[in-house]
Amino acid sequence: xxxxxxxxxxxxxxxxxxxxxxxxxxxxxxxxxxxxxxxxxxxxxxxxxxxxxxxxxxxxxxxxxxxxxxxxxxxxxxxxxxxxxxxxxxxxxxxxxxxxxxxxxxxxxxxxxxxxxxxxxxxxxxxxxxxxxxxxxxxxxxxxxxxxxxxxxxxxxxxxxxxxxxxxxxxxxxxxxxxxxxxxxxxxxxxxxxxxxxxxxxxxxxxxxxxxxxxxxxxxxxxxxxxxxxxxxxxxxxxxxxxxxxxxxxxxxxxxxxxxxxxxxxxxxxxxxxxxxxxxxxxxxxxxxxxxxxxxxxxxxxxxxxxxxxxxxxxxxxxxxxxxxxxxxxxxxxxxxxxxxxxxxxxxxxxxxxxxxxxxxxxxxxxxxxxxxxxxxxxxxxxxxxxxxxxxxxxxxxxxxxxxxxxxxxxxxxxxxxxxxxxxxxxxxxxxxxxxxxxxxxxxxxxxxxxxxxxxxxxxxxxxxxxxxxxxxxxxxxxxxxxxxxxxxxxx
Length: 492
Description:
The chain is α/β, with parallel strands linked by helices. The chain has helices at residues 5-20, 54-61, 84-96, 126-144, 160-171, 183-211, 213-219, 231-236, 238-249, 257-278, 282-306, 320-332, 371-386, 400-410, 444-458, 466-480; strands at 32-34, 39-42, 68-74, 77-82, 110-114, 148-155, 312-315, 337-339, 342-346, 359-363, 390-396, 418-424, 427-429, 432-433, 488-489.
């Protein structure tokens, strides 16, 4: 392999030094390759004499081949640093026999790729990490292919999860944050604590319903979905569950009344803070802005560490009012219906006639928009700002039905870009799914600190600038080397 790029670099270094050799000096010129320093070392030139640093300075004045980006002296040797970017390209060319990275002319097609999408007041976990490296990979690949790409992030900074975190934080006395560490993770602890409390109350109510399923079927024969329903599905059928909840509170299900009252107390606390939010309570808004900033700062630290930039960042709070308008507009156009004060899209009915897509809620009974209505508003905002030819959403597989529903609604409009849900599989733990609600999600900040520690133990200089770069590359490779369509099992 005499034509290997490293051999060509060595030959160029030898020819450079041969030209600089003092007249009459016939000592052989020797080299060694320093893989850790990614350079060539030659002690020979320093034996030729002259002032300290003089050899490198004299060589720099000569016609240095483009193979080298820097010359210096260190530990009794001349240091020749090759142009690593050019060397890497040459090595690829050598290995495959042709240029694997040809230049692609502009296609004239514009894309928006939305990815990352973390929620404030929760930790950025290893599942988000798979999302962000997948989205960044797609952006880079599309740009290389000649597309004009907007790398976009959509951060969930309002909604039920935020209100739950705020409830937990307020009930803890509104503590100041720690002076260092992952503040999104810290806030997520308040969310998890309150969500578990409310979730346990809901679970107790669902359990007692399921224990008395035969009686429920006899009491409500019109509720056909009760027949053969499993406990898990009963908890997820929100409309059915809330209907039975109201029946229990009205005394129609005496054996479930106690559990219903316990759950009601939790929901009332959440409703109270939701009312304060809807009324734009100044103290709540001030606390929300403060805690939100802590989360966003934590996210930006992660993006900086991973060297993943965004061209535009939207926040859920930006589209809340537009989402309310869209919900009402769809109602007026006959594309949505109203039920018990809530606005929803029933895909079983006209004009959709797609029963498999079931029902999608848009606005709550109190008029507050759900995530679905905000996604519709964001799509409209993207169109207004950038008019993309393609709009791609990098979101995990479990949201496939949801995006099918959203796309179906968007396609009822006068114009919509090509819509694509780029689904990837989840990152799970050996014991099952990760959950911020249960507190089982692995914060990415924990993984990052562990990676830095592992890399530092193997490096000569654990404080060196290469440590985070190596950690970053190793972690990205761990995700990108897995098929996007296959689940990743995370185990420390």
